[in-house]
Amino acid sequence: MRSAKWLTTAGLLATASLVLAGCSGAAEPAATAKNVELRMTVWTSNEDQLALFDAIAAEYIDAHPEVESVTFDPLPFEDYTTTLTTQVAGGKAPDLAWILENAAPDFVDSGALAPIQGTLEKTEGYEFDDLNAAATKLWKSDDQLIAYPFSTSPFVVFANDDLLAAAGQPTAAELQAAGKWNWEDISEVGSAVNAATGKAGFVIRDFDYTTWDNLATVWLGWGAAPWSEDGAGCEFASDEMVDALTFLHEAAFEKKSMPGPGATADFFAGESAFTVTQISRASLLAEAGFAWNLLPLPEGPAGEYSMVGQAGIGVMAQGENAQVATDFLAFFTNPDNSEKLAQWFPPARDSQLNAQTLAAANPVLTADQIEDVVVPGISTGVVRPSHTDSAKIGQTVRASLDAMWTPEADVAAVLDGVCESVEPILGN
Amino acid sequence: MKTDAAILARRTPPNPQTKVVVRRAFFYAALAILAIPFVLPTWWMITSSLKPISEIFAFPPTLWPANPTLDGYTKAFEMQPFVQQYFNSLYISFFVTVGTMFISSLAGYAFARIRFRGQNLLFLIVLIGLLIPSEVTIVPLFQIFNEMGLINTHWPILLVSTFGAPSVLATFIMRQFFISLPIELEEAARLDGLGRFAIWWKIAMPLAKSALGAVAIFTFLHIWNLYLEPTVYLQSPELFTLPQALTRYTDAYGGQLWNVQLAAATMTALPVLVVFVIAQKQFVEGLAQTGLKG
Amino acid sequence: MTTESTVLPDRAVARSGGTGPRKRRLTHKQRDAVAGYIFVAPQVLGIVAFVLIPLALVVYFSFHEWNVLANSFTFVGVDNFERFLGDPQIAPVMQATGIFSVFLVFFNITIALLLAVMLNRSLPGITFFRTLFFSPVVVSLVAWTIVWGFLFQDNGGINGALEVIGIDGPNWLREGPTAMASVVIVQVFKNVGLNMVLFLAALQGVPQELQEAARIDGAGSRTIFTRITIPLISPTILLTFIITIVGSLQVFAQIAVLTQGGPGISTTVLVYYLFQQAFLFGEFGYGSVLSIVLFLIVLLLTVVQWQLRKKWVFYEN
């Protein structure tokens, strides 16, 4: 990087001599350990959440005079990782950053994040051992915690009971009671809903026939995985995956229980009977004009399963105040603050994985729903598949999988093609 | 081409009034049909900004809100410093537009009228700016401005847009205009002892109003809709420009709040549209006298 | 780096020119030249600072492997260029780029010219129609693209309309050829208004007397249009041609929103591929090579068009 820096400086000098003098006064003074200004990039622009962050930060600043300010910098969710990477490339990395789970291996393995475990362990009252083992797995490198999983949100099924009733179908609770809470039966019911009402059966939210990793909520039920444990071998062509995707293909093109490619149906606007999404979306139901229910993921041929989506906070190694930033992270995620944050972000602390804490988090959910669906989801859920080079793998698989989403597609052949194109990247 | 009905109308012998009426009716019907793909999306944007979210996604789409609400509009102001962002876009667009008019008319005049060594090479260098997509140079530019401590200020947008690649098209337009301007006027002024600067300001510029109008419209629209640069350079919501602010109307989980976004998008587009309606006669007729006509 | 060194002499001239007027002993011609340098200085220096220097840095990056997250920056020689030559994606990407640009430019110019001819008259309501056709230009690109995305859905507005006249519409964004068509359509309607206004202005500058004279000589309206109108507005056509083709090579937000380069990689044009490599995959080194390729293509096209103008542009000046 030294030579690049040099050239940039050369370019800078040349540029500086050319541009108007008017802007020269804006040069930043080198930050000293005294007036530390921390910046954390986040992808929420929700006022209530930002207000809570600010409140926590204000409390921290009161006790730490060396910290001048903590800024929470919302970047748009859609190109969050891209924007963050651009900032890092430009030498303007934030001190702390939220990290999406699919980018976790890239950040954790690259050395872009500063180690945090030592500081967290040493911080008084932090109760490091309280952190859930399953929830922290993705965020460790060589058994050391590299980023803190501040949000562990289970995938669940929301059902529109009004729509089911309108189609003459049993409610979700009735289905579950009758032992029919499995993918085959849900597809049957969805097919009937579509035939009776023209609305959609089940929707894998945010899949949209592009973001294929959301299909993990389905293929886990068949015991399928996209790649081997060590990440080196492609398993898209496995029998389990072929069966799982054959199920989806039939659902989309024959049974019409799932909207086909290019068709949208928003569950929260009442347009589908079921949707698979993260529990955090429950807040959207506060304004829903229909009767709904919350259930765990249905059973697949391979049995019961659950899955979580995660987000972490990391300390960027590039920042000048990495140690101060780590201290702040230890404060931001201590037991007290973790409980406050649980309003929106299900915590990774065993002691807080209970109905009391989580009931405060999701006022639209009943205690039973939290006890039966949310708590087991978080404590047993596997994390969505992830891999280094996630963007490249995501794009390569998407391009190959596109051939699948036509009525006559040969599922097994397409999946062979997926492996062929993605294998060279996995092996890297 | 039969489309030029006016020419046809003049060529053929005088018609009974009814024939003209029928022909007119066909003409307007054709225009109306052609206008559908241009108008429908905008229409949908404006009307949907008045719909509740559930209705926005209704299929088939409704052309008129069944339950009109101003919810999206009030939320647009509550969620972000929208007034401040509006002001940011306005003042950045204004200064870049004025700055570009100044710089491009100077350079365009010199390239068209003054002979100096290296002129062609310099013009070629300037033209390169027209050929570089902003994606290509954004990373090095970000590094340069970061070293100068100008990230999260409006300076990168103001400086690059006014002096850099976006202003080249303006210089090109001005050069084409000044080339077509009769040289006699300037020669008379020169005999009166006016210097180059005075000739440019007192003789050439007053004649260039129409070309400057074109430059102003191009530049303003370009800066008003600029998206990539603000997202890269700006980090604080109170510094955002409008296109950037539009993408930030999301719920707690990054889901887009469509009614609010559409309300904000409508407020962004309507004033520019109104200005065009008012100014378009002068604009089109002004352009007609510029070098653009050839 | 070569660009840098060729610029230096001129910059030096510009500097010494800047101190020139104080000597007062310059000839008229010299004084004029000094004014020339001063006049072009802000623009030229701006291009050097904000285009050429960054471009030189891009060239420099292209010889390096730059892993942003790992903070590693290693010299790899021409590896990135070799990778470009061996990249199996390049052929389809170039093909998509060519198809997109050709269709976009063709439809944009033709429709703009057609509309301009239709609207070049003073009838009641003409201003209203001009505004309608121009309106997409001022609508935010992202909003515009999202709305069209709805219309192109399998159960969207376009197929709904086709159904009314008994046509079973395709699944627009999910099949290669129609996905490309969709991207072109969205972009054409967005920007035709701008070219239309330019053509309208050009048409109003065509002297009526010439057309009258031709008519008296017995020319038909088609002949008048192709033999008189078109040649007279040919400089405008050339200008819009250049702007549109250069613009077509820089389009990527629409593709990102509508198709993300798919299905397969059928709508992955060069600029989108560049964006993917550099910003999504973090391969700034390879992205820089693609930037250079894109720049060379645009440069080549512009030079070719500039040469061609001598052949078919009726007159200049």
Automatic annotation (TrEMBL), chain A:
Residues 1-21 form the signal peptide. SUPFAM superfamilies: Periplasmic binding protein-like II. Transmembrane segments: none annotated. Keywords: Signal, Sugar transport, Transport. It holds the Pfam family SBP_bac_8. InterPro entries: Bact_solute-bd_prot1, SBP. The keyword Transmembrane does not apply. Gene3D superfamilies: Periplasmic binding protein-like II. Coiled coil: none annotated. It comes from the Bacteria. The keyword Transmembrane does not apply. This is Multiple sugar transport system substrate-binding protein. It comes from Conyzicola nivalis.
From TrEMBL, chain B:
Its main location: membrane. It is a multi-pass membrane protein. This is Multiple sugar transport system permease protein. It is found in: Cell membrane. Gene3D superfamilies: MetI-like. SUPFAM superfamilies: MetI-like. The chain crosses the membrane at residues 25-46, 90-112, 121-145, 157-178, 199-224, 258-279. Residues 86-279 form the ABC transmembrane type-1 domain. It holds the Pfam family BPD_transp_1. InterPro entries: MetI-like, MetI-like_sf. Keywords: Cell membrane, Membrane, Sugar transport, Transmembrane, Transmembrane helix, Transport. It comes from the Bacteria. Belongs to the binding-protein-dependent transport system permease family. The keyword Ribonucleoprotein does not apply.
Automatic annotation (TrEMBL), chain C:
Residues 94-305 form the ABC transmembrane type-1 domain. It is found in: Cell membrane. InterPro entries: ABC_transporter_permease, MetI-like, MetI-like_sf. Keywords: Cell membrane, Membrane, Sugar transport, Transmembrane, Transmembrane helix, Transport. It is a multi-pass membrane protein. It holds the Pfam family BPD_transp_1. The keyword Hydrolase does not apply. Its main location: membrane. Residues 1-25 are annotated as: Disordered. The chain crosses the membrane at residues 34-63, 98-119, 131-151, 179-203, 224-246, 252-275, 287-308. It comes from the Bacteria. Belongs to the binding-protein-dependent transport system permease family. PANTHER family: ABC TRANSPORTER PERMEASE PROTEIN, DIACETYLCHITOBIOSE UPTAKE SYSTEM PERMEASE PROTEIN NGCF. This is Multiple sugar transport system permease protein.
